[in-house]
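The following block was generated as part of the benchmark described in Methods. Ligand: nicotinamide-adenine-dinucleotide.
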Amino acid sequence: MDKGKVALITGSTSGIGLGIAQYLALKGFKIILHGLEDKEYIKNILENLSSMTEVLYLKKDLTKPSDCRELVDEGSDHFRRLDVLVNNAGMQFVNPVESYPLEMWDKVIRLNLSATFHCLQRALPIMRSQNFGRIINIVSTHGLVGSIHKSAYVASKHGVIGLTKVVGLETAKENITCNAVCPGWVYTPLVEKQVIARAEKEGIDIEAAKLKLLAEKQPSEQFVKPEDVGAFVEFLCSESASQMCGGVYTMDGGWTAQ
Ligand code: NAD
């Protein structure tokens, strides 16, 4: 139990981020929940989390640097500290490189890469003043390997791994760590869109499309669960993980072991 520590998880109204928020709430962390949705839309999520711990919800568009800074400032002002920052918010857009729309390239880079920089830049002085901090960047196997039609996503995720290493080094002598977690396929709305597109394109049902997607990349042929990512994040927040500085950790059913 880590009672009283405050964790900000970006993009935590859905998928992996929500899994992390639920896991940390269960372990006694206070939660700064964040997403793009109105409060009314995520009422059930807020009720569930509030039954476990103290929760603050902030709606911010992290493609804007000012919103990234406001998120960290408003969250840490509310709880008067910030122990954990999980940079998780992200998006995918799939298209061959030569016709990849410029506005989508910019948006994916702004959200997946630049928002990670803006949020952690704002969080670091707060963590330094407390002499404790854990920064965890939710990357992807696509931070380590490529896949066709995912130029912006793969470039952004490789970029976050580079950023993780630099921040891991810059904080190595302090009680602050920065690490990257690289999940393989996790069944969330982000992946569901890709499964539906594949089922439509190949004229197969959703279950068959899921299996094809897994069989192509992930040798375990099973999805990673959001709560398993949450459990690993909790470990990275612990004292036992104090020497994990600038590391890159896969949870991918063997995808990148091939
Ligand atoms: P998701 O689509 O379920 O959730 C995305 C979250 O990001 C939501 O909370 C949404 O509100 C928020 N968000 C979207 N656009 C935003 C914006 N402009 N500003 C602020 N917040 C915004 O996605 P997910 O699958 O849970 O993915 C979460 C992270 O994990 C992403 O960084 C993704 O790249 C990464 N990831 C996902 C998978 C997977 O298989 N699902 C695998 C590896 C890594």
